[in-house]
Amino acid sequence: MREKQLYALILVLAIALAGVVGCVIALVLSIQSSARASAEYGRLSEPTGVPIVYAVEGQEAQLRTIAVTGMGRASAKPNQAQLSLGARSQETTATEALAKNAESMNNVIEALKGMGIPEDDIETAYFSLYPRYSTYGETIIGFEVTHMLKVTTTSLDKVGEIIDGAVEAGANSVGGVYFTFTEGKLRELNEQARQGAVEDAKAKAETIATSLAVKIIGVASATEETGYYPSSYYYDYALVVPAAPPSPIMPPTEVEVTITIRVTYIIE
What we know:
Layout: H1 2-45, E1 65-76, E2 80-91, H2 94-114, E3 122-133, E4 140-153, H3 159-169, E5 173-180, H4 183-212, E6 216-228, E7 231-233, E8 255-267
Antiparallel strand pairs: 1-8, 2-4, 2-5, 3-4, 5-7, 6-8
Helix pairs in contact: 2-3
């Protein structure tokens, strides 16, 4: 009987001890989990070197600005001319029209080269092949081929001679003469005009800032627009060569280049 009581007591103590051990293990695991969470939070909350910006509604920063437009000009006497000339041919068939036009244009190009114009300065500007219709457009009665060249030269005093030589060689269509600048000269004029536009914009902004009692502290944006229009001269040749030689072609005294700059200045 006493052995049975002792056995029961030992069993109760074992069950109680197991419960205590379970509680201890659960407590230890809870402490470890809390420690890991705390460490993770501490790692995430450490400075990373990247600033964090918190947006507050209704407090967005807005730049105070002054927007102005400046204009600069630069002019010079043209040092280059571009001529538009070529041949227009009409025949019954497309093959015949193309062949006739090719013969005329080959003669024109050879004549231009013979006048000292480099081949690189002779290029096709326009080429077309169109059918020709009867009066009421019911049937095709032939074909027309037009081949126009753009001829560039710096010999401005020989523009008339170049056109005359081309017409004598077979050119029967002359579009006109455009007085321009070489790339280097145009780049130089653009720089001059750009500098003037910047100075003009700055002067306008400073005047406005002074009047408003504010201070210019920077530039928010700037955009540029270039204006350059070559001077044109339309030669009086149109399919029929005049009996009397035309008057000499005189280039304009100056051609102007303009640049407009729109600048937005930051003020305080």
